[in-house]
Hints:
The structure holds 2 protein chains of 2 kinds. Chain A is 67% helix and 3% strand.
Amino acid sequence: METSPGLRKEVIEACKAGDQNAFTEIVLRYQKKVFNIAYRMLGNTEEAKDLAQEVFISVFESIKELREEAKFNAWLTQITLNHCRNRWKYLKRRYFFNSDSLNDPVETEEGKMAKTLQDPSGNPENHYERKMIQQLIQGGLLKLEEGQRELIVLRDLQGFSYEEMAEILGVPEGTIKSKLHRARMNLKGILDRFVH
Amino acid sequence: MECSEIRDHISSLWEGEITPSEAKPIRDHLSACSECQREFETFDKIMKWLLSAEEVEVPAEFLRGTLKKMNERKRSFPEAIKTRWRGLFFPLVWRVPVKAVAMVGVVFLVIYLTKIMPVEPPPLMKEAWEKSPAHGGKQKENHGLVLKEKDKERESSNLPPEVPRVSAPEMEKREGAPVSIPQKTDVTAAAGEAEALLSKDIEKREIPAPEPKAVGKTSGAEERSSLILKPLKEIPLRFLNSKEAVSQIEEMVERFGGKMVKTEDKGLLVLLPMPSLPTFERELAGLGSSMKVDPVDTNKYTAREWAAAPGAKDEKVDEKKKKSVRVTTDREESVIVRIVFLQE
């Protein structure tokens, strides 16, 4: 696992020493990744923002425990997923995900419109379709079991390799592949009716 | 290949993770099976949707909000440090076993200390209890027990043991020496020695006043002796001259380490050490005109009954003799013998 390009070892060392500028640099470099993982896992912008901020505060508080600076990316992703799991349980207990977002109409400038894909090829050529596809994807992800959702977010949305995923999740690559295949097939089953 | 097998390989086929030789039969089936082909196409479309999903932009003021939260956290950061450091140096994993070990250690310490120091009532409490009025009425009865208790105290406090109360004739017998006539002072001296070893509370203890008709300098002693005295013996004695007989008996009693208890019109009451009784009887048989010693009549009288008998004399004895008698009667087995005069 290589250090993310551009993140120098000195920045991590400075952050360990409590340098706020170094911390700021880390936030700016990883905020989009962390926020998007949180958003895909929780499906809510506000919740994702709060969670991402908590993740970076946790990073600052526990960065001294990081032994290998080269594994900062994997370590950060682990912290993010841990926060997501905790927050998911918290929100689920409060019936945060009761609404079926898949059947919700798509909100556009023209108003709300039902989800229909006119273009059978699936190529999102217009704004409406793109927005609709985003909503379908997010809705489908929230329907998945939490562990399957993590696999799809890490592999298909964030682009992690099987090796990185094995390190982050602590399971063998073969297990990652078979579970990922099952997650994708489940997502296909959820979104099948919207494709045809 | 079966359709179920094909669907298990769709993901690998789509990602290109299988070799061409493995992919060929799958593609051949897909071209032949419309259902599997449709499945593959749907899978392909959804995967393309996933890959085309754009990253959501970070909300404005995200960094500012993060720094603000962090500064607010820093205000309570010392508490967090304490918690963190406490957890580092004394994590929960250690706290529970340490507490358990500490509790076990305290229990063992208590057991160890209680075994070393056996619990005994403090002497002051004991003394106060013994002097209390509630306890006074039982002093007579319990004196012997108290003295025995004192023995136990002496043992526990490692004091030298008291001189065993053995009469002079008995001691000399044991040593093989001829029996000699003990002086009156010997008994008193021995008693005094024993007395010196007793605690002061015994010396200070007062013997309650005897009943009006109660008799004897040793009335208290007799009652106490009744705890351990053998039953009363009666020895009839025939003689010609009573005065001479009395004086001879007195001399004999003193010689055997006994005491004259009472003098009556028709007899004598003497207190003798139990071991010396057989010898005393034999010698008594030598006195008088004829030797007739009636069989022992035990338990005819108890000392208490004798003390309460009408006409018994009431003799005063000084405190020291009382104590000595008390010590004697309570330290060894003694018997009160009644010598009945049968004048010829």
